[in-house]
Every structure is written in C-alpha cells, then in structure tokens.
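[09:14] KT: can someone run the structure on this one? pasting the chain below
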Amino acid sequence: MNAEQVLQTIKAEKISFLDFWFVDIFGELHNVGMPSYAIDENSFVNGLEKLDASSIVGFKAVNHSDMILMPDPTSFKILPPDYDPGNRRNARIFCDLYDGSTDESSRYNRDSRGIAHKATKKLKEFGFTHTNWGPEIEFFVFDTINVYPSPYAATQSYGGSGYSIESKESPWAKGNVSTAINLKEGYYPSQPKDTLEGFRKDVCDDLYNFFGIRIEAEHHEVATSGQCEINLEYDEMIQMADHVIGVKNLVKVKAKRKNKVATFMPKPIFGDNASAMHTHQSLWNDKSNVMYDKDDEQAQMSQTGRYYIGGILSHASALCAISNPTTNSYKRLVPGFEAPVNVCWGLGNRSAAIRVPMYNRNQEKSKRIEYRVPDPTANIYLLEAALLLAGLDGIKNKIDPGDPIEENIYKLSSEKKREYKIGSLPVSLKGALDSLSSDSKFLEEVFTKDFLDVYSELKYKEYVAFAQTPTAWEVSMYADA
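[09:31] RB: done, structure tokens below
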C-alpha cells in the first residue's frame, strides 16, 4: 500500500486506532496508538512527532531526545481481534526512526530497521538484487511460570529465588498420564500429547489472514512442556524481519488471552532441548539464485555461495553477540542438545553451524544455506544485516570455508576436530562480546561504531549483572547445610 491507500482502508474498514510499531536496539517491540481521525496525509510526509527517545533503552540522552516516527505504508496491516478486548478494529504499521528531519541523511543510526535497510543497499555493490530469508521460529508455551518467593527475588538472590514451570505436557506434573511428554521426546507427537496443536493453528490462521504471512509448517518441537515451531515461507529481508516481529508478538498476545505464558527464552528447562531460530538465506540477481550451480556435483553450491559460507564461519564468534545475545543463549549452545557448537559447514548435517539442505537436487529456487546458531532472542533486523554483511565479506575476500563435514561432529574427538580445522563458538555472552570487539570491521559501514559501542556496553552490563547473581542451584550445591 501507499499512504493514500492506507488512509482509504482505514476509512473503509472503520479502523478505530492505528498502532505505530518500532523496535529498540535489542528487538523489543514498542508501540504508540493514535485514533484514526488524528491521522492524515501529513503523518506520512513529515512523520509523527511522538518519540521521546530518552525513554527507550540505548537510544538518546534526555537533553537531545526528540525524534520522528516515519510510518512505512507498505507495512500496514489490520490486527486480529485478540489485540483489543474492547472489540475495536485496530491496525498496525511499522515506523522508521529519524533524528531532526525526514531526510534520508537523518535516519537514526540506532534504528534496527534502518540498519537492515542500509545493509540491503550493500547488495548492489556485489551485483545482487535481493536476498531471501526463512527463519524457523521456536518457542515455549507454558500453562504458567511460578517465581519464588517473588519476581523481584529472581534477580536479587539474597531474597531467595527459584521458579517452577507448569504444563499439561510436563512429565513432572500430576495427573498428566495421557499428555505427558518426556524430556527430548516431543518431536512431532500427535494428539492428545500435543496439547498446543490448536493454538499453533490459530496463530498460523491469523498470521495469514491478517498479516499476509505465509506459513510453511507448524509443529511441536523436541522438548517437553509445549515447545513449538512455526516455519515461515521465505521473503525478502525487511519484509521477513517485520514478519518475525509480528509472529513473536502475536504468539505472546494469543497466549496471554488463553491465560498461558509464551516465552522465546532459549533454555527455560534444564536437561532438555532449547529453542533456536535457524535462519535460511539465499542470494539473488533478479530471478537467478546466485548460490545455485547445477554443475557442482557435491552440493550444487556455487563458488559465490561457498565464499558466503566462508564469510559467516570466519565471523561466527563475533556474530554470536548478535545471533545469541543473552546470558541464557549460552545455556543452549552446549553439546548434547542438538545445538551447534562447532564452526563448520556440512551437507544436510545438523551437527554443523551451517548446513546446505539436500532434500532435492536440481532445484534452483530452493538452494540455500541454513545458519543453525541463532536463537529467538536475537533482534531479527540486526541478525539478518549481520549475517548478510559477514557473507558479503566472505565473497569480497574470497574466504573459502573448506570441505563440508559429512560426519556427526558431536562425536568427533578433539584431535579429529583439529585435523578438520573445526573451531568452537563462544561459551558465554562475554566471550561473544569480546569477539565482537576484536572483529567488527565487517559491520561498521552499516552498523556504525557508535551503535556497536552502545550495544556492547549494555550487553556487557547484562552479563555482569547475571554473572554476579548466585543461582538457587549454586546455593544447593555449595552452601553449608
């Protein structure tokens, strides 16, 4: 849609409020609503003088906080009824952030969506027109989470802390004989064990009917207690990032309406699989898939595609600061739970950081890579931008990824890994941030040093805060009885 069509639709569909969406530097969604009668052509020309940027973490100081929200009419969508218990008709629109004016030169350098836009412009320098992206979004839906003795105590350990998860699928709950799923046994169960099939289908229906997001598949994932996955049909970079924000928000809203708790925290359950956001990606020049080479007998992967893989693998440790941006992320990146910890690539090999799916040969449209490291706490705009820049750096510098690894990497000895030159991902958020501090040049033209400095500073503070907090497990193990 353009601005005129948006205004016509608001009137024709009797939209009461238009919600203006944007994300902070960590990908958290923020919203300001305006009644439809307060919106006119000027709202799309000069933007909205509605943002106090000092109130958004990582944005601006209080003495320089006025910013402009510029609505993107192409992102206009009518919201599902779950968004308003008052039965009003609402719509949403994504906004870009500007500093002082709406000239392109005033685009705010800490606007995640703006960073993704800027990254797409780098494609033209390499002769590409666009990229396609297809994330697999995993999450948990619990009946409830109990924090003891209070939510405050969970971050202030001297008050005592702990939590319990309640789910009809959990093997530790009483009376769940027909719905209990053991740890690591939740992949593709049928009803009645899969208690969330209807929930996922409701989400998928709304994603398609209201947001126009096409779904490839939905299913229960490996973990117990309501681990879900929704696969989105591929789309271009900005559209897909908008889709992911919409999916995550809708899941939370619909769970709340059903008195459940949805979480995109990677590892909420000790001893079970965690949630990932495996990200499929491909490079295109108009209708030609640049990653595809029908004459390559091994993977039908072009040399350009191999260099793209090499770029991502060479920057994998630094990328973790963006693809796995929480302390909890590194409770997932451990051996034994199907999460990648080894920096290498393979053909259909799910133990590698990058796999080239091998379902069908001679299918140019589907030739792609899947980066298996990210988790759903990543800011999708930053993630896509960073992966693209790393891949383009690989193409620019002709970084060869070596031969694909065919073996189960989880079972390789340390000696064998050294022989194959397989590296390891960071084991903590601090390790990832340290890697980013020494390997950020490939990002700085798009992310800017200012953004990376602010992002890293806030994430280091997060790491220190959690590193200093004793856990209930530590107390039980080491405190004198």
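[09:33] KT: thanks! The chain has two domains: 3-108, 130-479.
[09:34] RB: yep, looked fine to me
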